[in-house]
Specification:
Blueprint lengths: L2 E4 L5 H12 L3 E4 L4 H9 L12 H14 L6 E4 L14 H29 L2 E6 L12 H20 L5 E8 L7 H12 L8 H13 L12 H13 L6 E4 L1 H12 L2 H8 L3
Parallel strand pairs: 1-2, 1-3, 3-4, 4-5, 5-6
Helix pairs in contact: 1-8, 3-4, 4-5
Length: 276
């Protein structure tokens, strides 16, 4: 039975991936930040323990726990957890950027560094990082999230090059809009914590559009969105194929953005992105 550590399993993509890969015969170590979420996962039969990207001690403890449970042989890691701070770039203070980079980039990178020695010792493994369409494109009010995912793209591509000659495979999954996740629902708390919208030139926008959308109990689905199972399908290929792809684009929006990035002039791309 191959072993897989997944982060951010409390809901959405991580939860669907944990359930699906477990049904496919993987030994899934479904980690999440909050203790109560881990208890819920254990109640449904999944192995779960805490992992908080924002805490190095938590990452170290989680990796030690995973390696202990798997006799030092962890086969794969899926870096899925993330947070979003939807706000205008001019409203993002240093503390906000440091926080989102800690969770979306530094934490996943630290996790990879801690599991790589065991993979190198056996000369095999799979590392899959969940990026985003915003890892190669941008839309208004996505600056913080987009910056972390752009950075993840560069770091992951470089790691893949450095692991050439080994049987450790590295892939990126780049979802477009995915419904059924808690990312946007949790974003409201991050706006209220990090953004001084009362003194912002975008104050009216935050109050009339951004905050109501984030606080909605039944947010409308983005056009062309798919469910978390679409991401899991790509994850399965990245983990089980003898020749996994370097990149997996999920949703027609991701493919459209890729085509725009490749063929459209910057002014055209800006005009299209400004409509979102």
């Amino acid at each position: 039975m191959k072993s897989l550590l997944i982060t951010g399993c409390s809901s959405g993509i991580g939860l669907d991936a944990a359930r699906t890969l477990s049904r496919r015969g993987w030994r899934v170590l479904a980690t999440c930040r909050r203790k109560e979420d881990g208890e819920r996962l254990r109640e449904e039969g999944l192995e779960s323990f805490p992992l908080d990207y924002g805490d190095s001690a938590s990452i170290e403890s989680a990796v030690d726990e995973a390696l202990s449970r798997c006799d030092g042989a962890l086969d794969a890691v899926f870096n899925n957890g993330a947070l979003a701070i939807p706000a205008a770039v001019e409203d993002l203070g240093r503390d906000a950027l440091e926080t989102i980079f800690q969770v979306n980039l530094f934490g996943p990178h630290e996790l990879v560094r801690r599991v790589l020695p065991s993979m190198r010792a056996r000369n095999r493994g799979r590392i899959v990082n969940c990026s985003s369409v915003l890892g190669f494109a941008a839309i208004p009010f996505s600056g913080a999230y987009s910056a972390t995912k752009h950075a993840m793209e560069g770091l992951t591509d470089t790691l893949r090059l450095e692991l050439r000659g080994t049987d450790i495979k590295v892939s990126l999954i780049l979802p477009g809009p995915i419904h059924g996740t808690a990312l946007h629902g949790k974003a409201l708390a991050h706006i209220e914590r990090w953004i001084d919208d009362n003194d912002s030139v975008w104050r009216d926008f935050y109050e009339s559009k951004m905050k109501p959308r984030m606080s909605s109990a039944n947010p409308s689905r983005a056009p062309f969105s798919l469910g978390p199972e679409a991401v899991t399908a790509r994850l399965v290929h990245a983990l089980e194929s003898p020749r996994p792809r370097t990149r997996y684009y999920v949703t027609s929006m991701a493919w459209f953005a890729r085509l725009m990035r490749t063929f459209a002039p910057p002014r055209v791309r800006d005009a299209v992105a400004a409509r979102f």
